[in-house]
Amino acid sequence: MDYQVKRQISVALENRPGLLAQIAKLIGDAGVNIEGISVIDNVEQGMVRLVVSDCEKCRALLREQGFYLIEADVIEVFIPNEIGSLAQIASVFADRKINIDYAYGTDNQKRGTMGLFIKVSDLVVAEDLIKSL
In the predicted model, what is the mean pLDDT of residues 35-48? Predict the structure, then answer.
């Protein structure tokens, strides 16, 4: 199974119109591509998780603008876009007591895969398990 470890930047945002647009423009104007994104809302604030083409540049830009960031490693895994594929990888992780803290992704019909970003409780063991699939 094809995978890679990526650095993810999470940004806590006030829940108001235009803030995501501001961040996306800032990143885009700097020539940094957003490869993966998850936006979660709650009553008081939102959380934007970003996987980008240049993490260092993005981190510097956002910090310069006063945004609070948290970083983590996530696994980007490409699973077959078929019924049961997610169940297979989730079951393998569960059997080894690897927790999936969260995941987000999209299908790629041209490749016949689903690109899935996964934050796990044990990255090293999760990598070994993915290699064995």
Answer: 89
